[in-house]
Specification:
The protein has 78 residues and is of the alpha/beta class. It has helices spanning 17-23, 41-53, 62-71; strands at 2-4, 29-32, 56-59. A three-stranded parallel beta sheet has the order 1-2-3. Strand 1 (2-4), helix 1 (17-23) and strand 2 form a beta-alpha-beta unit. Helix 1 packs parallel to helix 2. The chain is globular.
Length: 78
């Protein structure tokens, strides 16, 4: 299980977490604490890559789920 919030991990917009999720050899669940309304291009890229690498994704609210599925290039089945 990986907790995600911008700034929680090192690198620009916490992008060092990408090395962690890409290296996992077991199914992973990502818990996203923040789904921004107007992310920068890099913030969008980081979140989309984290979701892509995850087996499943958990958000904190229905609004965040709708935002993630409508404004980001992610698989809504996750």
């Amino acid at each position: 299980m990986v907790q995600h919030d911008y700034g929680l991990y090192g690198g620009a917009d916490g992008d060092e977490v990408l090395d962690i999720v890409r290296a996992l050899t077991v199914p992973s669940i990502v818990v996203t604490h923040t789904v921004l309304v107007e992310p920068t291009d890099h913030q969008r890229q980081v979140l989309e890559e984290i979701v892509d690498a995850a087996s499943a994704v958990v958000v904190m609210a229905h609004t965040a789920a709708r935002r993630l599925c409508s404004r980001f290039d992610v698989d809504p089945r996750k």
